């Protein structure tokens, strides 16, 4: 599609609109970070970056872009992993990070209304100080809530509490033509027409730009205890997960990890993990309103683990121990990145009953393709993260082996009735795998939805299902 190339007249209009030249970056003033996201090797600079501060600014920019056929890319913290916030067609990048205000805490309806630039860690701190709880817990705590909603981020607590979509009650959205609309609201039930709010969640900035979100809160659990459970082998550890899922005690989180990733995290953080002597571990978290309640919940799960060959049950019942374990778990991605020259990631999700088969397949795949692969993940909800490492491979070898490894992992996930992405999204980087996995009728419907929202295709083009 032919887009208008941004010129000085367009730039002047934008500067006059926001009335603050410091919030408009162009030319050499555009930081290199705006050309890519956290991991993807997808790189492209926008022509101009606008650091917006209000819904009205977003609306006026979108009206102008729509009338003049200028592509627009929305962006939060840029912590995505699939190139969704990269300006493939250049044009205007709308940076929402300055729209970072808490607008309302409604304790009667248990909702929190925020702008899209508020960080996940700020939301957690804000509500927990008031004995409230926002359960979604994606690993990247410096991500914006707008980005979390745009990718339907999951995180470690999804096994018990669900994902971001389950905690979004309402959204204010600027459409590609600049109109401002509201989807959902504070109501708990809603059968009023099509679920437009849910369509926006996970749309990766291709249908509209989120400018306000009403989030559901719940009462804060009073206590949390974690169990770190070493196993002699990965097979024993991961084979225990379906048994835990089938039991009546539902942990807040069920994570699996291997010794080599723990050692990477120790080196990255400069701190020892409570135990690094075993090949594989399960990390379980339980929360509730009393120690007795939690102990009853984890007692039966501990027995299952012992029956399956667990070496020990390490109980983390102090704040210090909790922080040391979960800080290491939160550092896994950065630690793996630091252990190699470059990497690409897979974010597959399979039915929980197939987790053990998928993990063992990934673990043994390096022998077949002769490339290092490290993995960890949310074993309790079937969402597995595998990282293919470049190390000292030449570009040609890397491309060949990485592509082969990726194809095999996605094919195995499809064989197990899984999906391409559990929480990172499709963006630009994973489109080819999505196309292989979906029925053509499914893709046709998605393209039709995109056209209904954005007939000129100016908002975040080439992402998700678009060529």
From TrEMBL:
Cofactor(s) needed by this chain: FAD
Ranges for domain FAD-binding PCMH-type: 42-220
One Pfam family this sequence matches: FAD-oxidase_C
MF terms in GO: FAD binding; oxidoreductase activity
InterPro entries to which the protein is assigned, alphabetical: FAD-bd_oxidored_4_C, FAD-bd_PCMH, FAD-bd_PCMH-like_sf, FAD-bd_PCMH_sub2, FAD-linked_Oxase-like_C, FAD-linked_OxidoTrans_Type4, Oxid_FAD_bind_N, Vanillyl_alc_oxidase_C-sub2
Keywords: FAD, Flavoprotein, Oxidoreductase
Protein name in UniProt: Glycolate oxidase
Top-level taxonomy: Bacteria, Bacillati, Bacillota, Tissierellia, Sedimentibacter
């Amino acid at each position: 599609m032919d887009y208008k190339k941004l010129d000085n007249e367009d730039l002047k209009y934008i500067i006059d609109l926001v009335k603050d030249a410091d919030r408009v970056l162009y030319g050499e003033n555009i930081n290199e970070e705006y050309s890519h996201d956290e991991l993807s090797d997808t790189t492209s600079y926008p022509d101009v970056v606008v650091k917006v501060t209000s819904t009205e600014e977003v609306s006026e920019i979108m009206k102008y872009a729509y009338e003049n056929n200028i592509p627009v890319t929305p962006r939060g913290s840029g912590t995505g992993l699939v190139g969704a916030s990269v300006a493939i067609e250049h044009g205007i990048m709308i940076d929402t990070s300055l729209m970072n205000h808490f607008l309302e805490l409604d304790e009667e309806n248990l909702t929190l209304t925020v702008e899209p630039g508020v960080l996940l860690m700020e939301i957690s701190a804000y509500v927990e100080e008031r004995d409230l709880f926002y359960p979604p817990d994606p690993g990247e705590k410096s991500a914006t809530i707008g980005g979390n909603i745009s990718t339907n981020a999951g995180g470690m607590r999804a096994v018990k509490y669900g994902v971001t979509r389950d905690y979004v009650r309402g959204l204010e959205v600027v459409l590609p033509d600049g109109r401002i609309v509201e989807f959902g609201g504070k109501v708990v039930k809603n059968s009023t027409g099509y679920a437009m709010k849910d369509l926006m969640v996970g749309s990766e900035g291709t249908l509209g730009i989120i400018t306000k979100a009403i989030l559901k809160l719940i009462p804060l659990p009073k206590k949390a205890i974690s169990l770190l459970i070493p196993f002699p082998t990965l097979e024993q550890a991961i084979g225990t997960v379906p048994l835990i899922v089938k039991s009546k005690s539902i942990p807040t989180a069920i994570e699996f990890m291997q010794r080599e990733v723990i050692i990477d995290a120790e080196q990255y953080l400069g701190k020892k993990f409570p135990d690094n002597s075993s090949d594989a571990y399960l990390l379980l978290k339980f929360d509730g309103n009393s120690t007795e309640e939690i102990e009853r919940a984890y007692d039966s799960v501990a027995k299952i683990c012992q029956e399956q060959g667990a070496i020990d049950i390490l109980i983390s019942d102090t704040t210090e121990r909790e922080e040391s374990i979960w800080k290491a778990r939160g550092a896994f991605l950065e630690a793996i990145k630091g252990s190699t020259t470059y990497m690409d990631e897979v974010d597959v999700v399979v039915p929980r009953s197939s987790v053990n088969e998928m993990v063992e397949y990934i673990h043994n795949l390096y022998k077949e393709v002769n490339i290092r692969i490290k993995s960890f993940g949310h074993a309790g909800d079937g969402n597995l993260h595998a990282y293919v490492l470049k190390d000292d491979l030449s570009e040609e070898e890397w491309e060949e082996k990485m592509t082969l490894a990726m194809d095999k992992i996605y094919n195995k996930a499809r064989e197990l009735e899984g999906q391409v992405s559990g929480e990172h999204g499709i963006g630009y980087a994973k489109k080819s795998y999505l196309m292989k996995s979906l029925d053509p009728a499914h893709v046709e419907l998605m393209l039709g939805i995109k056209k209904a929202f954005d007939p000129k295709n100016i908002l975040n083009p080439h992402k998700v299902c678009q060529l």
